[in-house]
Write a structure and sequence with these properties.
The chain is an all-beta fold. The chain has no helices and 32 strands. The strands form eight sheets. It has a four-stranded antiparallel β-sheet with strand order 1-32-31-30, with no helix packed on it. Strands 2-3-4-5 form a four-stranded antiparallel β-sheet, with no helix packed on it. A four-stranded antiparallel β-sheet has the order 6-7-8-9, with no helix packed on it.
Length: 377
């Protein structure tokens, strides 16, 4: 497939938010007639293969979590989604909601299993209302065995083979094949450090004294890959700012790369390309031109650096997307070789595995609607 090949367009009040396992693309959409559905595409051909209707009752329902998980024992991946069926207040009876968790076959669209986590709860009646695209993520372990679900007031660990769940502390994060549970006060937005546990047993296997937050799936300051935790805002043993790697699940230091060793003193955000094991760090330049650097996750060695970028869009599928001179440039994550560029003045797309999302805003009176174009990388 060529870079930028169009897969679909959508008009919606929020991003369609694709999820992908590298073979199938599932796009969350809100049809013109109302409701919620997932449109499925084969990434090898670019063809639409079907849709999954997420509306299964006459009651108002809102989807608030979505992921696509490849599992070793299944021929097809699972699409895991959550939703809340809300029942409005009736007289003296307050509004209630039922939180449901479902798994569909990513190719056939058939329901594999369904689990109601909470029934007729007053806590869930509005927890999904107004959900943004970023909040649709469910975090899954790299082996496809477990998913972490935190759409509202509670956080659950889900065994994806059969949908069984157990509650875990707030601010728990997925770290490759393990969990990172906050040490100390779990109600804090960012955990100061985490204990590393086995999802199946809850046994503590190690710990990391780094600020690990739930943002590790998006542009953030931490990421996990192939038994390593990478922390951006860290310090080496001499107190110098550094990118550091920690072995999982023990949490023992594996490598350290000083910011100054990359010719820069203040990397502010990071994204991980799991296809090549590359951590891309970015400094926006404080309003002026920024810089990018690529770090080998396994060795901690600097692969390459680029100065003068306007913006860093993200990385996926072995490619790095950035804006330079108001043009979109696409680089090979390992070599820095430019493999594509868009000569038109364009904003950054949202970068997902298997898809790019371009957004054009169209204003109509006081209501904003958006036109989205889903394209292949």
């Amino acid at each position: 497939m060529t870079s930028g090949q169009e897969l679909a367009t959508y008009a919606s009040d929020r991003a369609p938010h694709p999820v992908s396992d590298g073979r199938t693309l599932a796009v969350f959409s809100t049809p013109a007639g109302g409701g919620h559905q997932l449109d499925l595409f084969d990434l090898r051909s670019g063809q639409k293969t079907g849709s999954i209707d997420l509306e299964t009752s006459d009651q108002w329902k809102n989807t608030c979590g979505l992921t696509l998980v490849a599992q070793k024992r299944r021929a097809h991946s699972l699409i895991v989604s959550t939703s809340v069926v809300a029942q409005p207040a009736e007289g003296i009876h307050s509004a209630r909601g039922t939180l449901s968790l479902r798994a569909h076959d990513a190719v056939t669209g058939s329901l594999v299993w369904k689990k109601d986590l909470e029934r007729n709860s007053t806590q869930w009646s509005n927890s999904c209302e107004g959900t943004t695209a970023a909040e649709l993520d469910l975090s899954a372990t790299s082996d496809g065995a477990y998913a972490l679900l935190g759409p509202g007031l509670k956080t659950y660990l889900v065994h994806l083979a059969d949908g069984t769940v157990r509650q875990v502390p707030d601010s728990t994060v997925v770290l490759d094949r393990w969990l990172g549970l906050p040490r100390g006060d779990s109600s804090r937005i960012g955990a100061v450090s985490v204990d590393i546990q086995a999802p199946a047993t809850g046994k503590k296997l190690g710990s990391v004294d780094e600020p690990v937050t739930a943002d590790n799936q998006e542009l953030g300051n931490t990421a996990a890959h192939q038994g390593l935790l990478i922390a951006l805002d860290s310090e080496d043993t001499q107190g110098e700012d550094a990118v550091r790697g920690y072995s999982l699940p023990s949490g023992k230091p594996a490598w350290s790369l000083r910011h100054s060793a990359t010719g820069h003193g203040g990397w502010v955000t990071m994204d991980l390309d799991s296809a090549t094991g590359t951590a891309v760090v970015y400094d926006n330049g404080g309003g002026s031109l920024g810089a990018l650097a690529a770090v080998d996750v396994i060795s901690g060695k600097l692969r390459w650096k680029v100065d003068g970028s306007d913006d860093f869009c993200g990385t996926a599928d072995g490619r790095v997307y950035l804006r330079v001179n108001s043009q979109l440039a696409v680089l090979d994550a390992k070599t820095k070789k430019q493999v594509h560029f868009d000569a038109e003045d364009t904003e950054c797309p949202d970068v997902f595995p298997g898809a790019l999302v371009y957004t054009d805003e169209e204003k109509e009176d006081v209501i904003d609607t958006y036109q989205y174009r889903i394209a292949a990388p």
